[in-house]
Predict the 3D structure of the following.
Amino acid sequence: VGGAPVRVEATGYTIEIAAGALARVGEMANRVAKAHRYAIITDSIVGPLYASQVAAQFTPEAVSTFAVPTGEEHKNRDSWASLTDQLSANGFTRDTTIIALGGGVVGDLAGFVAATFMRGVPFLQVPTTLLAMIDASIGGKTGVDTPAGKNLVGAFHPPRAVIADPDVLATLPLPHLRGGLAEAVKHGAIADETYFQTVGDAASRLLHPTPDHRDVHFLHTLIERSVRIKTDVVARDTHEHGVRKILNFGHTIGHAIELLSGFTMSHGDAVAAGMVLESAAAERAKITTAGTTARITDTLRTLGLPVTRPTGPSPDDILDIMRGDKKSRAGSIEYAVPERIGTMAGATNGFAVRIDDTIVRDVLADAVTDMRTSSASLA
Ligand SMILES: NC(=O)c1ccc[n+]([C@@H]2O[C@H](COP(=O)([O-])OP(=O)(O)OC[C@H]3O[C@@H](n4cnc5c(N)ncnc54)[C@H](O)[C@@H]3O)[C@@H](O)[C@H]2O)c1
Ligand SMILES: [Zn+2]
């Protein structure tokens, strides 16, 4: 049995975290986004598991389910086109509410459909992965990937509500649970040292291969703490002009290696490696306190997350992606990095920290040669 139901207020919408909340999606839709028709957008794995349970909460004529194939490679404009075409073909009008039922891929894609279909219709986020519950479903960012990079086409379109039911995590494969924990570690690293410690210490209680043996109560607490950290940051800066940038810790390098892997590396894994590499570069640049990278590395290791990058791409391949430009090979890129665990660097400069490309290139090169030694030596 999980913890007591929790409601967290974000700017303009409520996030409900409660065991069994999946049974109240219809009620929530009726309350905050009542419409003539409801479109459940899901993927080919989550759909068969949970879509009929959600659809059953609406009158049969009012609801349709559309499933895209699972996977980041389908978070693209083709899926967006196909979904908007299907909505039109099925007679959906402006009087529509979209229900995003799935992980962050579905949330971003369905959210972007909601942001653009008929110039924007309301939507609910019903996240079904840990990562989507604590991160992707909150903050109103929606969008799709393009060949040039991740999330390059999108819109800010906050949901009317987020309904997170920790019970659905019982079917989530362990690697995806780990991916969510990478973002939880990030939340601790950017804002709360005690939480950072707690997540690392809970590894054995969370990562049991059999869902029945996982500490659901702790998982509930973890979702709540991460949701509070993220909503707090987003409330202070909804459009990412300043403090919201701190949520990008690990993501500048992370997104690049995720893209270069052709999405064979998951988002959470890429962010884990990205945090280690960005922190290592910042430590070398004397921005981050010595020892910070070692603590991040140890915590991620305990959780079974990667602490180094894949060997395929070269440091310059990675830098080119981060820069979005192959021509200028000298300069510096902006990162969001901790000064120490729980406190971010660059507060006086909108939390954007420039690190010279030469330092980053060295760290990226060393990350491969040092693969079998402690990555603490990267700093
Ligand atoms: N909008 C934002 O602010 C934001 C923030 C962080 C991440 N993201 C995006 O989120 C995406 C990653 O999300 P993700 O990690 O949830 O990946 P995902 O959506 O691909 O889900 C991971 C896998 O788990 C399956 N799955 C989902 N729920 C399940 C369940 N309950 N039981 C069994 N299987 C289940 C999915 O079908 C998929 O195969 C990335 O595209 C990333 O860019 C967005
Ligand atoms: Zn992320």
